[in-house]
Design brief:
The chain is α+β, with helices and mostly antiparallel strands. The protein has 3 domains: 53-76 and 260-335, conserved putative lor/sdh protein from methanococcus maripaludis s2 fold (Beta Barrel); 80-87 and 180-254, Efflux pump adaptor protein, beta barrel domain (Elongation Factor Tu (Ef-tu), domain 3, Beta Barrel); 90-168. It has 7 helices and 17 strands. It has helices at residues 2-30, 58-63, 90-122, 128-156, 158-161, 165-176, 324-335; strands at residues 53-55, 67-69, 72-76, 79-86, 180-187, 199-204, 212-214, 216-219, 231-237, 248-254, 260-265, 271-273, 276-284, 287-293, 297-298, 305-308, 319-322. The strands form 4 sheets. It has a 7-stranded antiparallel beta sheet with strand order 7-6-10-4-5-9-8. Strands 1-14-13-12 form a 4-stranded antiparallel beta sheet, covered by helices on one side. It starts with a helix and ends in a 6-residue tail after the last helix.
C-alpha cells in the first residue's frame, strides 16, 4: 500500500514538471527575437540625427551669402579691465595755489634767516632775538610747505608731488585749459595687481571708436571706499576730444607679462543662443557644425573678439565669418524649433 502511494506521488511530480517545461517552451516560441526590432523602430546601423549640424546644398548656402575663412592667429597682451572717471582738477588747482604761496613764503623766510644768522655771527647790528624770530619763521614756513607736499603726494601721487614749482604750474595750466586730463580707475573688487601696468587704453562712453592710449600711470594713494578696489591715476596729454570731469570710462590696463596666443574672430562670426556664444565651422562641402566658444576680450574695430587657444576653435577650422545667423535659422527650422535668440 505504501509502495503504491510513493509511485502515485512520483508520477504527479513528473507530470507537473513536464507541464511547466511545455509552457516555457511555448512562450519562448511566441516571444519576438531580440535582434529583430519592432516595426517602425530605427535600426542600429541607421544614421542618427546629429546635434548642432546644418546640412545645406552648395547652391543654397551660397544663396545665403555664406562666407568662410580660417581664424586669424593673434596674441593678447595680459590685461585687466578697470572702470573710472575723469577727475575734477579744481582741488588740484587750489592745492597748487596754496603750495605756491607756501613755497614763496618759505623762500622769503629762508633768505631772512640766512641774513640774520650771518649778521649775528659777524657781530653786526642785529639782536639774537631777531635772529631767533627769523629762524622760527623759517622753520614754520618749511613745515607748512612740507605738509602741503605730503598732501599732494597722498592725494595725487608721486608724479605731481615730484614736480618743481615751474613744471607744476605748467601742468596745472594744461589741466585748466583741457590739454591734459587726470583719470582715476579701479580694477574689479577682489582683484589685485602686484606690478604697475605699463600702459592703458581708455574708452569713454559714447566715444568707443576713439580709444585713448597712455603710458603715464601711477598707483592711487587710497582705495575705493565702497568696493575696496585697487586704483590707479592715469595722465592723458592732448586727448583727441575734451575730457570733462565726471565722464565715465572703461580702461584696459596692459601688464608687463608674456602675451597669450589665440585667435581674432570677427564679430559677425559669433552668434548667441541658449545663453552661450557659438561659431559655425564647415566640416564638409554641405555640412556646417555649430561649436561653443569662450569669448575672452573684445578687440578693436572689425577684429571682433579674442578667443584663447583653448577657447573652442582650432587653427585649421574653416569658420563661417558671414551668414552665421542665417545658418542658425536653418538649423532651428530643421529641428522644428523657434527663432534664434
Amino acid at each position: 500500500m505504501k509502495r503504491l502511494a510513493h509511485i502515485l506521488l512520483t508520477a504527479c511530480i513528473l507530470l507537473v514538471l513536464c507541464w511547466t517545461l511545455w509552457i516555457g517552451v511555448r512562450k519562448q516560441k511566441e516571444k519576438p527575437r531580440a535582434e529583430e526590432p519592432a516595426e517602425g523602430a530605427p535600426k542600429e546601423d541607421e544614421e542618427k540625427p546629429e546635434d548642432f549640424v546644418v546640412k545645406l546644398e552648395k547652391e543654397k548656402w551660397k544663396a545665403l551669402d555664406i562666407d568662410k575663412a580660417e581664424p586669424e592667429k593673434a596674441e593678447l597682451k595680459p590685461q585687466r579691465i578697470a572702470f573710472g572717471r575723469v577727475l575734477d582738477p579744481a582741488p588740484l588747482v587750489t592745492l597748487d595755489g596754496e603750495l605756491a604761496a607756501a613755497e614763496a613764503a618759505l623762500d622769503a623766510s629762508r633768505a631772512e634767516n640766512e641774513r640774520t644768522q650771518k649778521l649775528l655771527a659777524a657781530g653786526e647790528n642785529t639782536s639774537r632775538k631777531a635772529a631767533e624770530t627769523a629762524q622760527a619763521q623759517f622753520r614754520a614756513d618749511e613745515i607748512k610747505a612740507d605738509g602741503l607736499r605730503r598732501s599732494a603726494l597722498l592725494e595725487w601721487g608721486q608724479v605731481f608731488a615730484a614736480l618743481d614749482a615751474v613744471k607744476r604750474r605748467e601742468f596745472v595750466e594744461q589741466l585748466v585749459h583741457g590739454d591734459t586730463a587726470l583719470i582715476r580707475v579701479d580694477i574689479l573688487p577682489g582683484d589685485a595687481l602686484a606690478v604697475l601696468p605699463k600702459s592703458a587704453r581708455v574708452i569713454v562712453m559714447g566715444r568707443e571708436q576713439q580709444p585713448i592710449e597712455t603710458q603715464s600711470i601711477t598707483s592711487a594713494a587710497d582705495v575705493d571706499a565702497k568696493t575696496q578696489a585697487q586704483g590707479f591715476i592715469l595722465r592723458v596729454d592732448k586727448p583727441p576730444f575734451p575730457l570733462r570731469p565726471g565722464m565715465a570710462l572703461t580702461t584696459w590696463l596692459e601688464l608687463p607679462e608674456k602675451p597669450r596666443a589665440g585667435f581674432a574672430v570677427p564679430r559677425a562670426a559669433v552668434i548667441r543662443h541658449d545663453g552661450r556664444a557659438w561659431v559655425y565651422v564647415q566640416e564638409a562641402e554641405e555640412k556646417f557644425v555649430r561649436k561653443p566658444v569662450t569669448l575672452d576680450t573684445p578687440l578693436d574695430g572689425e577684429r571682433g573678439w579674442f578667443i584663447a587657444g583653448d577657447g573652442g576653435i582650432k587653427s585649421d577650422d574653416l569658420l563661417v565669418v558671414t551668414g552665421a545667423q542665417s545658418l542658425l535659422s536653418e538649423e532651428l527650422k530643421a529641428q522644428g524649433g523657434g527663432e534664434p535668440d
